[in-house]
Amino acid sequence: MIIGGAEDRSGKRVILRRFVELAGGVHARLVVVAAASHHPADAGEAYRRLFSDLGVRKVTVMAIADRDGAAEVSRAEAVERASGIFFTGGDQLRLTSLLGGTRLHAALRDAHLRGAVVAGTSAGAAAMSDTMIVEGDSEDAPKKCTVKMAPGMGFLRGAVIDQHFAQRGRIGRLLSAIAQNPAILGIGIDEDTAVEVGPARPLLVVGSRTVTVIDGRSITHTNTSQSAPEEALAITQVTLHVLPSGYGYDLTTRQVTLPPAAGST
Predict the structure, then answer these.
(1) Which helix H or strand E contains 187, and what residues bound it?
(2) What is the pLDDT of residue 263?
(3) CA–CA separation, 131 vs 198, rounded Å?
(4) Contact by Cβ (8 Å): 158, 177
(5) Which residues pair with 229 in a beta bridge?
(6) 244: helix, coil or strand?
(7) Long-range contacts of residues 167-173, Cβ cutoff 8 Å, at least 24 apart
(8) Are 32 and 59 in contact (CB under 8 A)?
(9) Is residue 123 within 8 Å of residue 90, measured between CB atoms?
(10) Which pairing describes strands 210-215 and 185-189: parallel, antiparallel, or unpaired?
(11) Residues forming CATH 3.40.50.880 domain(s) in the chain
(12) Which fold has domain 1-125?
C-alpha cells in the first residue's frame, strides 16, 4: 500500500483503516519502521498511537537512527512475525542508506514475499520501487537535470513513485524520469491518497484525491539523449491517466479498470 503522504489521521482515516484491515484488523501484528525521519522515535510513536486507536493490540516501533540499529537480530525477528509493515515519512535517501543491504532489509524483503502487507507514506512511498526519485525541481519544465534518482527498496518493480504529487506540482519531474527510461511506469500519488498493489490483480486507488499514471511506452520522440542538462525536454505521445478512488490500473496489461458504477454508464 503506497501512500502519497499527508493521509487523514484524525477524521475517518480511510487509508490507515484500510492498511489495518489488510494486515489482519485488530489481530494484526504491525511493525512501524521509522528510519526516514530525522526524529525517528517521534515519528514511530505517532503511528503507534494511531494504529492503537484503530484497535491494533500489537504494534512494534523501530526507531532506526543508524545502520547498527538496522543490523539488530531482534528487529529482523520482529519483522518475520509481522503481518503488516509501515514505513513513515521523512527522507527516502536516508531510509535506503540506513537499511540497504542490512539484516533488516533482507527480513523486510522476505516478509513482503511471504505476503505481509507493506505500506509507506511520503518518503516511505517513494522508496517502495526499485528505482526512486530522491530530488527534483517541482516548479520547472521537464529537463534532463529536473530529477535525480537512486536505487529504492525494491518492493515494486518496473515503476517509479512520486508523492505529494498534485499538491507540489511534480508532474514535470515524473515526466523527466519516464523520458529517461520509457519502459518503467510513472505513478504520481496525491496527498491523502494511496494505491493498493497485490499479486494477480490491478492496482487500486484509495483515498480522497487522485493518482496520475504515466506510461512512456507510447512515446514516439524524445530529445533526452541529445539535450543539454538545462535544455527543455521534448516528449511526444506519452500516455497519461488520472484516476480517483475506486479506479484501477493493470500493471501487466497497462489498462485502466473502471469501478462497477462507471463501467455501467
Answers:
(1) strand 185-189
(2) 60
(3) 19
(4) no
(5) none
(6) strand
(7) 167/6, 167/191, 168/138, 169/138, 169/139, 170/136, 170/138, 171/212, 172/136, 172/137, 172/138, 172/140, 172/141, 172/142, 172/146, 173/133, 173/136, 173/137, 173/138, 173/142, 173/146, 173/147
(8) yes
(9) yes
(10) antiparallel
(11) 1-125, 128-258
(12) Rossmann fold (3.40.50)
Report d(CA 182, CA 213) in Å as an integer. 13
Residue tagged 540499529 (cell numbers): 69
The residue type found at 93 is: L
Instruction: Give the pTM.
Output: 0.96
CB contact at 8 A, 122 and 6: yes
Longest dimension (CA), the chain: 56
Q: How many helices (H) and strands (E) does the chain have?
A: 9, 17
CATH, range 128-258: 3.40.50.880
How many residues comprise the chain?
A: 265
CA–CA separation, 139 vs 263, rounded Å?
A: 36
Catalytic residue positions, numbered: 122, 164, 191
Q: What is the pLDDT of residues 148-179, one digit of tens each?
A: 999 999 999 999 999 999 999 999 999 999 99
Lowest mean pLDDT among 49-53, 111-115, 144-148, 212-216: 144-148
